[in-house]
Specification:
With 358 residues, chain A is α/β, with parallel strands linked by helices. In chain A, 42% of the residues lie in helices and 18% in strands. The radius of gyration of chain A is 21 Å and the shape is globular. The C terminus of chain A is likely disordered. Chain B has one domain: 3-Layer(aba) Sandwich (Pyruvate-ferredoxin Oxidoreductase, domain 3). Classes of the chains: A alpha/beta (358), B alpha/beta (179). Chains A and B meet through helix 8, strand 8 and helix 10 of A and helix 1 and strand 2 of B.
């Protein structure tokens, strides 16, 4: 199949359409505006609805409405905009609705900057809204994966009736790479007997709701949901291993950062240091088994993130502190150079690590 | 074949991103691995804009070019900022009609072409970017002469087809300059 050059943001949009998404609600923000721009052009051509809402708060509630009616729906934003969507996201989770949202992260906190960042890891994996709930978080590291994981996100969201987030960053959103866009195999769209599509006078009405005033009912609801989360965390974790067979120093990185790690690993290997990479592709569920297995043979871990250190918590939990876990971070929109990661690999290999790195 | 780590830099509006897009298509039609990454900050509106292009036979790790082996500098601030980052024995192409100095480095190859004046004289205003690219292609062997038209056909969108010829003329003006 022919390779086409696309920006990561455009790849997400086209992949969503190929996955059957015909509804997009959003509000522009750098560095993800191309998602909305692409949808505004393409969706009318395929009989879809593109609507620029008055705010992110409105967008996410439109997503809730569309999803309630059983259609595949997408919204997209960047860090501050995702914060505004928190309340709606929690309602979507509380209603057991599928939805796909995209966060092309930029530097924070506050209005922050517009350069690439990975500082919304906690927000995505821990606290995307109030209450007890989880969302699926997929972290592409190439334009091809921006497309592939978007299609996958729709399937997972429908299958598990929960929100799925594509967590990218400004580099992945803005860069162009050749990709092959292949439609998912012809599959029966997920049955949505729960959707509010009109009873036709033939069945009991479906109610989409997140309000449970009886605490015992609400507890039961949450316990049921967490049973599902448990099954998902055992079955849906995805990761990539790179040069892990003999790795002494294991880098852990996702998204654009994982690509810079690969450069640093080649540099380390040419110096005789056995470095490898575990790249979580899903951040929730986190591929903890892969890390636990690696901790049996590796000497040390280095968590590389464009943040002050957020995923490192999951890395430490996964390796149960059996090996040292060091940190290599940039923040505010600054991006690692391969050289500074190499330096950290050398330190982690020789054990010369300053206190503040741990 | 060598990997090309190309950094194109200039003022916003000089066609830095478009020039990069053309080069990336030249790599793509050769079946090589390619990536293109623009700067997208406030510099796009008047300040310095830059674009990282990588063409390689290996899968591309970081798409950010921090040590270019080809630098295309379209204005003085870009040359000032990036000359030191060029890899040893790399190439720095500079628009000598806008950049009033040579290179400080002696361990890299300097290519000087008065692209802006050439564009003006040949009725190709605004296409100094493609003149620079043509010269860089010739000097560094990024693609063959024959691949230029195919890459251009992919770069110029269908609805702007009228711009194909002028862009081709600009590339070849640079390609043949000084030969």
């Amino acid at each position: 199949m022919e390779k086409v050059l696309m920006k990561g943001n455009e790849a997400i949009a086209e992949a969503a359409i190929m996955a059957g998404c015909r509804h997009f609600f959003g509000y522009p923000i750098t560095p993800q505006t191309e998602v909305a721009a692409y949808m505004s052009k393409r969706l009318p051509q395929v009989g879809g609805v593109y609507l620029q809402a008055e705010s992110e708060i409105a967008s996410i509630n439109m997503v809730l409405g569309a999803s309630s009616a059983g259609v595949r729906v997408l919204t997209s934003s960047s860090s501050p905009g995702i914060s505004l969507m928190s309340e709606g996201l929690s309602y979507i989770a509380g209603c057991d609705l599928p939805a796909v949202l995209v966060n092309i992260q930029r530097g924070g906190p506050g209005l922050g900057g517009i350069q690439p960042s990975q500082a919304d890891y906690y927000q995505a994996t821990r606290s995307s809204g109030h209450g007890d709930f989880r969302i699926l978080v997929l972290a592409p590291n190439s334009v091809q994966e921006m497309a592939d994981l978007t299609m996958k996100a729709f399937d997972l969201a429908d299958k598990h009736r929960m929100p799925a987030m594509i967590l990218g960053d400004g580099i992945l959103g803005q860069m162009m790479e050749p990709i092959v866009l292949s439609a998912p195999e012809e599959q029966k769209p997920a049955e949505k007997p729960w959707a509010a599509t009109g009873t036709g006078g033939t069945r009991k009405k479906n109610i989409i709701n997140s309000l449970y005033l009886q605490p015992d009912q609400l507890e039961r609801k949450n316990l049921e949901r967490y049973e599902r989360y448990k099954a998902i965390s055992e079955s849906e974790a995805m990761y990539e291993e790179h040069l892990m067979d003999d790795a002494d120093v294991v880098l852990v990185a996702y998204g654009a950062t994982s690509r810079i790690c690969k450069n640093a690993i080649s540099m380390a290997r040419s110096k005789g240091i056995k470095a490898g990479l575990i790249r979580p592709v899903t951040l929730w569920p986190f591929p903890e088994k892969a890390l636990a297995n690696a901790s049996c043979r590796a000497k040390s871990f280095v968590c590389v993130e464009m943040s002050m250190g957020q995923m490192i918590d999951d890395v430490k939990l996964a390796v149960k502190c059996s090996k040292p876990v060091y940190f290599c971070g940039r923040t505010g929109g600054m991006v690692h150079s391969p050289e500074e990661i190499l330096k950290k690999i050398e330190d982690a290999n020789g054990g010369v690590i300053n206190e503040h790195c741990i | 074949m060598n990997a090309f780590n190309i950094l194109i830099a200039g003022f916003g509006g000089q066609g830095v991103l478009f020039a990069g897009k053309f080069i990336v298509y030249a790599g793509l039609i050769q079946g090589r691995q390619v990536s293109w990454l623009p700067s997208y900050g406030p510099e796009m509106r008047g300040g310095t804009a830059n674009c990282s292009v990588i063409i390689s036979d290996e899968p591309i790790g970081s798409p950010i070019v921090t040590k270019p082996n080809i630098l295309i500098a379209m204005n003085l601030p870009s040359l000032d900022r990036y000359e030191d980052s060029v890899e040893e024995s790399g190439l720095a192409a500079s628009d000598s009609s806008l950049i009033p100095r040579g290179l400080h480095r002696t361990d890299i190859q300097g290519v000087f072409i008065p692209a802006s004046s050439l564009a003006e004289e040949n009725g190709l205003k605004g296409l100094s970017n493609m003149i620079m690219v043509g010269k860089a292609i010739r000097e560094a062997g990024i693609c063959t002469q024959g691949e230029i038209a195919e890459a251009m056909a992919k770069t110029v969108p269908e609805r702007k087809k009228s711009l194909f010829d002028s862009n081709m003329r600009a590339v070849f003006l640079g390609y043949n300059y000084g030969r």
